[in-house]
Amino acid sequence: MASTVETPVSGASHLEPVAWRSRPRGNPWRRPWAMEGFTWLYIIWSIVPIAIAVLFSFNKGASQATWQGFSTKWYVGSQVTSVLHNPSLHHAVIQTLVLGGLTTAICVPIGVGFAIGIDRWHSRTSNGLNFVMIFSFVIPELLLAVALFLLVTQALTFIRLGTPAEVAGLVVWNISWPAIIVRARLASIGRTYEEAAADLGASRMGAIYRVLIPLLMPAIFASAVLVFASTVDDFVIVEQLSSTANTQPMSVLIYSNVHGGLSGPSLNALATIMLFVSLLAALIGFVAYRWMTRGERTKGTTEALTGIAGI
Amino acid sequence: MGRRQDTYDRRNRWLWIGLAAPGAIWLLVLFVAPFYVMLSVAGGSVNSFFQTAVPIWNPLQWSSANLTAVWHDIVGPGSFLGPPALRTVLYTAIATVISLAIAYPVAYFVSRYAGRRKTLFLVLLIAPFWVSYMMRMLAWIDLLQQGGFFNRALSFVGLPGNTDWLGGKSVTVIMGLVYGYIPYLILVLYAFLDRIDQSLIEAARDLGLSKWRTFWSVTVPLSKPAIIAGTFITVLPMLGDYFTNQLMSGAPSTTMIGNAIEGQLESPGQTGQGAVLALMLLVVLLIPMIYYVVSTARTSREMA
Question: B138, A267: Cβ pair inside 8 Å?
Fold first, then answer.
């Protein structure tokens, strides 16, 4: 950019307004109506279908297109097809919650440990493991699911299809959430606090437990929420690794019943329960993230929102 | 930083290894090993009585029978894998372009112009992210069925309202793919665009560039990493998708490569060929995946 420097510039030019000839036409601070309208159209398109599906889970009749009055029969009322009374429907709810709980409980601790360990164990092995972890993040889920299916049916047959295989697969599929998020947080908090703790006489385990872990808490919590929600949402891995109907979570049940089988508003009711579980996790995550990062110089609400969405 | 930290890290080396070990073992046993099993099944043989796959663990004895069979299925005369493979590429390409065309303006608007309403917009953009994929597909199945709201809306404005949208239409599948994966794309684009230094854009405008020139020569080059990352985020899962088309059509006219992999894996005697097909998809995707992994590793190193 040497030419720009050599161009003769009058000494006071930076104090004067920009040359009149280059003033942009139109008002640069005008609100971009077209883009805003487009954004709203997108939002309507993305949310209204879901709202309609939720609404029709409360329909009195079996139609998903004609409103016949409010009722909760698809949740609790009907003895045959309500979520409460139909065994396959309520098994699916329980299985989803079991998988979500177990996966989060295993995945988050080992993912956080992995992140801290990889961050400090400078070696070829740790670089290689980091690559493997990022690979597990980008690989199409079907390929991992097929590979896991072959592993548990051909080699490690002691991991039975059903809940054990599902949890094993979900943990490996989700381990990148805590690993990536905690590593990013490790990079942003730096090493000063830990060094200060060491200088003040803390043991190395003491420094980790009393300084590092509390500082990592928002990241750990955000990743726990993400792992839980992504397990509730998961379909491909659980479909490949489930065995009997009892080990099918909500997503698999909805998939296998959409065309025939248990159709009608009871599926909408099941999906609405899934939605509620995920939104509850998101809400808890949001509130806790705000609370844990209080007093930090953050962008507040926006950062908490993007934090629990993993971006 | 520097030497003191290095000594601290080296002195506690076993602690770090111990912390990383559970996750590392989990990844090796349940992420790396499964692909070796996949190779062994692909290079293995079939038990002729039970029609089950017999993996061969020694790489030197791997047979190419499954590979040859699959190759003939793709390019041979009676090939039945060619059309789904082509369809997968086509659907993914169209759905990705449409997704980018919708997602970019939305993410751009929210990151630059939303102002004080940014939180509101972010909540609305993140909301679908928390709604399960199955529910979002179910919502569209309700709308698109015959006698559903979409057909009724069409007949209301005078168009034929009796189309069977769920009976094997590519349009519906592509719409389903866009609807399914666009929330992730928007979030990725937003995260990148939000980090663009606004003063660069202001500088371009101050120096006399028109609105469009500023956009083309400043904003677009600066958002190139966003577009690349966003494209990966949508293309990779779309190529391995097999459920969206099943839900939105279920007809053989819209099957994708994922359905072929799943179908072969489940049919007796064909497990090995399913493994070969999955490995072929993996090989094709390896280059973009490695690119993504390397660039991610580079950004995280720059961040640190």
Answer: yes
| Best CA proximity match to A52, nearest among B129, B131, B140, B157 | B140
B301–chain A Cβ distance below 8 A for any pair: no
Question: 3-state SS string over B161-221?
Answer: CCCCCCCCCHHHHHHHHHHHHHHHHHHHHHHHHCCCCHHHHHHHHHCCCCHHHHHHHHHHH
Range of the domain at A59: 33-71
Q: Do B133 and A251 touch (CB under 8 A)?
A: yes
Q: Are residues A152 and A284 in the same domain?
A: yes
B259: nearest Cα among A228, A148, A239: A239
Domain membership of residue A101 (yes or no) is yes
CA A152 from chain centre, in angstroms, equals 26
Q: Does A143 touch chain B (CB under 8 A)?
A: yes
Give the minimum alpha-carbon distance from B78 to chain A in angstroms, rounded to a whole number.
26
- In this complex, the residue of A56, A147, A258 whose CB is nearest that of residue B34 is A147
A287 part of contact set with chain B, CB < 8 Å: no
Mutation site for B-interface testing, chosen from A21, A36, A116, A146 by largest number of B Cβ within 10 Å: A146
CB B285 within 8 A of CB B232: no
CB distance from B30 to chain A under 8 Å? yes
Domain membership flag for residue B44: no
Q: What is the pTM of this model?
A: 0.85
Count of domains in chain A?
A: 2
Same domain, A134 and A42: no
Query: In terms of domains, do A275 and A246 share one?
Result: yes
Q: How far is A78 from chain B (nearest CA, A)?
A: 21
Chains A and B form CB pairs within 8 A to the count of 304
Rounded CA-CA distance B111/B195 in Å is 9
Q: Are A62 and A168 found together in one domain?
A: no
Structural domain harbouring B204: 80-266
B50 touches chain A (CB under 8 A): no
ipTM of the predicted structure?
0.87
- Count of domains for chain B: 1
Residue B127: CATH number of its domain:
1.10.3720.10
Spell out which residues of chain A touch residue B289, defining contact as CB-CB under 8 Å.
135, 138-139
Residue B65 lies in a domain: no
- The answer to whether residues A231 and A166 belong to one domain is yes
Tens place of pLDDT per residue across chain A (311 aa): 334 444 444 444 444 454 444 555 566 567 788 888 999 999 999 999 999 888 888 888 777 777 877 877 788 777 777 778 778 888 888 999 999 999 999 999 999 999 999 888 888 888 889 888 988 888 889 999 999 999 998 888 888 888 999 999 999 999 999 998 898 888 888 888 888 888 888 887 888 888 888 888 888 988 998 899 889 889 999 998 988 777 888 888 888 888 765 667 888 888 888 888 888 888 888 888 888 877 776 666 677 677 666 65
In a domain, A255, yes or no: yes
Q: Are residues A62 and A123 in the same domain?
A: no
